[in-house]
Amino acid sequence: MEENPGIFAVLKEKCRQIHKALQGISGLKVVEETFSPAFHLQLEESSGAHEQDVRLLQEIVDQCMNKNITLTQACYLEKEVKCLPPPSIQVVVTVEQTEEELERAVSTIKEVAQVVLL
């Protein structure tokens, strides 16, 4: 397989852009570094109940899926993990995604989060 060092610069820039765009979503916060192509969205403030937080995030995932934006909720082996991280939505950026696709994903996540979290 031939390597293309420019592809990493493109991916890094897309990651930076999507991290920045998702920073402003009311009720959610971006977790991970800006150069990471896989990162998490968590609730800014927990409801205080793990199951309730999971339900809220799953509602965002489901509504985004209805609008053709595929997200997934992070899964952990609860019995095997000593310190369970807060529930989160996993977001993945790929080099193949176009600017338009990324912009549509961000606007859909913002729109859905506003409805679900208000």
CATH fold type: Aspartate Aminotransferase, domain 1
Stretches where pLDDT falls below 50 for ≥5 residues?
A: none
In terms of structural class, how would the helical and strand content be classed? alpha+beta
Radius of gyration: 15 Å
Question: CATH class, anyone?
Answer: Alpha Beta
> Helicity, in percent?
40-55%
Could you characterize what this model shows?
α1 packs parallel to α3 (99-117) and α2 (50-66) packs across α3. The mean pLDDT is 89. It is globular, with a radius of gyration of 15 Å. The chain has one domain (5-117): Aspartate Aminotransferase, domain 1 (Alpha-Beta Complex). 46% of the residues lie in helices and 14% in strands. It is an alpha+beta fold. It has three helices and four strands. It has a four-stranded antiparallel β-sheet with strand order 1-2-4-3, with helices on one face. The chain has helices at residues 5-22, 50-66, 99-117; strands at 28-31, 38-43, 72-73, 89-92. A hairpin with a 6-residue loop joins β1 (28-31) and β2.
Summarize the structure.
This is Aminotransferase class I/classII domain-containing protein. This protein has 118 residues and is of the alpha+beta class.
Write the layout of secondary structure elements.
Elements: H1 5-22, E1 28-31, E2 38-43, H2 50-66, E3 72-73, E4 89-92, H3 99-117
Antiparallel strand pairs: 1-2, 2-4, 3-4
